[in-house]
Amino acid sequence: MQLKNVSLAIEDKPVLRSINLNWAHGEAIALLGANGAGKSSLLKVMSTLLHPSTGKTTMPEGMSLQKWKSKLGVVFPETFLYSSLTGYENLLFYQKLYGKTDNEQIEQVFNQVNLSRVQQERVETYSKGMKQRLAIARAFVHQPTHLLLDEPFDGLDLASKTILERLLKEKNKQGVGYVLVSHDSAHAWDLCDRAVLLHNGKIVLETPCTEKTYRSFMNQYQGWLKEKQHDVF
Amino acid sequence: MFFKQSLLILKRDLKIEFRNKSLLLSMIIFAVLFQVFLQIVFDANIEAIKKIAAGVLWIPILLSALLGFSKYGIAERENDALTGLLIAPVDRGAIFLGKLLGNLLFVFIVVIISVPVFFLFLKQPFPESIGLLLFTLFLGSWGFVALGVFFTTLAQSSSITDLLVPIMIFPLAVPLFLAISQLTEMALYPSIVMGQDLWVLLLVGYNILFTIAPLFLFDILLEV
Ligand SMILES: Nc1ncnc2c1ncn2[C@@H]1O[C@H](COP(=O)(O)OP(=O)(O)O)[C@@H](O)[C@H]1O
Ligand SMILES: [Mg+2]
């Protein structure tokens, strides 16, 4: 997907400014930045939930909007889960919503997030971490090729973090691309091909994620964090 | 795909409702209580109730439907599940249709229970025309529910608050109220027969408008 000169204002407040971003098929992008930098808003634009105020988003290879949506898997801060339904019913609902019925796939994602034991229990009985893992399973249940992940590691314990890391690496090998928002740059570095730093709604830094680039990225990141917000413009 | 998704949303709502048993039960109790109350108020005067019978029959149903609208989006509001629907390749018209069918089902159940209560208390045991009465009950509640679900869906995905929905509904509901009050009077009592076809036409047209138009309108109205 391609973003060209995308700007977004919410209630007259500029949130994104002239974003140019090219997300190649299968590419893993880490989207970093301080709180309020506009990371979540950028993901919402990419998911077509929000429309840019100016600028243009282009779907890959002339995909239609519906096609793009069907290829997209999303983990946002909210889980989108129905708490009086069981874990299994939730996944079944979301899978069917995407026009699929594939019980094996459901079994598989339950295994992948280590929730098979509780899949017949209502979500309201789950712990926070279990809900987050189910939300991750929900994002995978229709076998998307593109993932938008807004701090998916939030609320996960160490073991679950490892599970998700492994899952992302495995999916990436199979050609699934993702945009990963995280406030832990060191952690994200290990999971991305390219890192993008967002500051006050602007992309201020882009670099490939290698061991060599990490130190200089972090130095600049810290520099941006120290900047007072209004000094940038 | 469109209808499958509507049915999927309907089935999910019914499953959630079946587990929590909150909405339908309160709608029924509300309608029946109100029906009984109105009957008690007018019990003393049979001639008086003749003049307002249509109102006594309908008010509990309409208010009970309004109660349904206000609880309309609860399943989607929790955990922002609405966004889960909107990022999926789902037409908003399909969401509307699923919600419409669920609300209709509940209101029809309310009608089935509260209308017999009406006749139980009324001293005149039989309506003049059962056919016309059933027709009016069916299309009248359908029209009101379609209008209500349309506005609630609109409110849900824009900046209009839920509180404003009943206020916005009422001006548009006036033609519907006229049609159902006239037709119900004709169905209940023999003496008044005037312009029946016209009211039937209005009712049918109203239903078609508020059922079909929203199926296509949402994406135009909301993708601004
Ligand atoms: N619905 C909204 N209404 C008003 N302001 C918003 C809304 N959503 C986001 N913002 C503003 O946009 C900016 C970016 O927010 P967000 O994208 O959530 O940042 P991040 O995810 O990087 O923390 C913030 O300053 C926030 O206040
Ligand atoms: Mg955020």
From TrEMBL, chain A:
Gene3D superfamilies according to UniProt: P-loop containing nucleotide triphosphate hydrolases (3.40.50.300)
Keywords: ATP-binding, Nucleotide-binding, Transport
Keyword ATP-binding found: yes
Positions of the ABC transporter domain: 1-225
Source superkingdom: Bacteria
PROSITE patterns in the cross-refs: ABC_TRANSPORTER_1, ABC_TRANSPORTER_2
InterPro entries: AAA+_ATPase (IPR003593), ABC_transporter-like_ATP-bd (IPR003439), ABC_transporter-like_CS (IPR017871), ABC_Transporter_VariousFunc (IPR051782), P-loop_NTPase (IPR027417)
Keyword match Transport: yes
One example GO MF annotation: ATP hydrolysis activity
Stated name of the protein: ABC transporter ATP-binding protein
Organism: Terrihalobacillus insolitus
